[in-house]
């Protein structure tokens, strides 16, 4: 479905991606792991169209149609069906939970829409649906609450909910459980497992190997911008040399 072909990206003297290559199949949960600076976020940014590679390309194939993501704008990539969350929480503190759901359901540019939503209160619409999502994600808060009043864990859950709500073919999550407590981590684990059962294709970056072992079908170990190991969690994470060299375990 997604094919990453020898992607190289340098920032000044830093080689962030170095002939990085792998593929993602439909209905797989693929975890990208590796030390800080391995190039995981740069890879997600390149798939999203935010960064253009120096060499190589990334293609998305759906049915008989293949698009080269590395040639098009981030907006076009998003509209082709790559939905993602960012490593740092990116929400609009002065907007409510429901405003964020409205933004997620729209195909328009996020920032522009945030301004519109802030001006005209587009509420009322879709209230039952939005309440159901809050329930599904275990966010026990009011739809009209400003997101600045949410806990960090609830903000992480909201970001995942938004990525899933957006029309998509693939969901990419950059460190979905970083910094959350054990309860929220378990919640996110259950959500991802149920998404997989519903047929979703998920790519994620994560440092927590227990979380990765619990949910991933495949693990891609990266270091210095390249893929070092690519296999099932058993294959990739049972090798003590791999764990020591790349994952500090
Ligand atoms: N915009 C940028 N300008 C300059 N260097 C960058 C930029 N983005 C990333 N880098 C560098 O590229 C390398 C890969 O960074 P990247 O953020 O992709 O790593 P990562 O695997 O996501 O790490 P972490 O686990 O810490 O999030 C690092 O050396 C980083 O400093
Ligand atoms: Mg990162």
Jot down its keywords:
249 residues, alpha/beta, Rossmann fold, 2 domains, six-stranded mixed β-sheet, four-stranded antiparallel β-sheet, 10 helices, 10 strands, 26% strand, globular, binds adenosine-5'-triphosphate, binds magnesium ion
Structure notes:
It is a single chain. The protein is α/β, with parallel strands linked by helices. The protein has two domains: 1-81 and 169-249, P-loop containing nucleotide triphosphate hydrolases (Rossmann fold, 3-Layer(aba) Sandwich), CATH 3.40.50.300; 93-167, no CATH class. 38% of the residues lie in helices and 26% in strands. The chain has helices at residues 40-47, 74-80, 97-105, 110-119, 127-136, 152-165, 182-197, 209-215, 233-237, 240-247, and strands spanning 2-11, 14-24, 29-33, 55-62, 65-68, 82-85, 170-174, 201-205, 218-223, 226-231. The strands form two sheets. The chain has a six-stranded mixed beta sheet, with helices on both faces. Strands 2-1-4-5 form a four-stranded antiparallel beta sheet, covered by helices on one side. Strand 7, helix 7 and strand 8 (201-205) form a beta-alpha-beta unit. The longest helix is centred in the C-terminal third of the chain and has 16 residues, at 182-197. The model has no long low-confidence stretch (mean pLDDT 91). The structure holds adenosine-5'-triphosphate and magnesium ion. The site of magnesium ion has 4 residues, from helix 1.
